[in-house]
TrEMBL record:
It comes from Gemella bergeri ATCC 700627. This is Phosphate/phosphite/phosphonate ABC transporter, periplasmic binding protein. Belongs to the phosphate/phosphite/phosphonate binding protein family. The keyword Cell cycle does not apply. Gene3D superfamilies: Periplasmic binding protein-like II.
Amino acid sequence: MIFIFSIVGCSAKPENKKQENKVIKMGFVPLKNSEKLIEDVQPIADYLSEKLGVKVEAFTASSYIGVVEGIGSGSVDFGIIPPFSALLAQKQSNAVPLLTSKGATGKPGYYADLYVRKDSGIKSLQDVKGKKVAFVDPSSSSGYIYPGAMLVEAGLDLNKDITYQFSGGHDKSLQLLLNKDVDVIGTFDGVPEKYAKDFPNALTDIEKLKSSDLIPGIMVTASSKMDNELQQKLKQALQDIEKDPKMSELFKKMFNITGFQEVDKDSYKKVEDTAKIMNVDLDKVK
């Protein structure tokens, strides 16, 4: 569910004719097939093009940490990224938190789940011992940090008590589970419904084993190199999504995002605490 928007070199005012040569690149961490994803988000690109007065193009980022590094270098001017990635960007390059997304319930947050097949015989976290687990990415909040922490707090040593791999995408983890290549996956709440079109048996063959505490919402995070005036215009454009029925429905359908609000920085302390359970040092993640 995790994705990023990026703006490259767009500090000039929209009314300036030179803006015709400027391009806003809207990128995403791996959610599904890159070509299909870019096709699906074209209406968002068109919406932002109109709001900002510059052309918006979409691309797919290859990894979560690649987005963080892009924000740090300024090649990615802002991202709508999961909270752990947002914290990394803030810690490593003084990135600026702009907005927090609201989930399907209207609350600024979402959940991570551990899913198993209904025929697996796995009924408790302790039953995961000795099993194969698929996480998404080392920098994914719902795809690693939170589900991994649930297993650690249940007394499992991830390096000794399970065999795990990183799939590279939430849909890929789901496919591994359905194909019986792994026994457990860590992903975001509602993943069976999200990918029901591609994997209809996800609605009947798997079940939740455990849900996490509320994860603070996906955050709009700007590079420290991004022009402040442009930051404010982007904030307004994203907050205006709730006033646009078409865009509002698209964000909800694709990302379970129902809007954006100001950032409550204190709520993200929980993410850092959860990372510590996983022995993750924000200064050293690369």
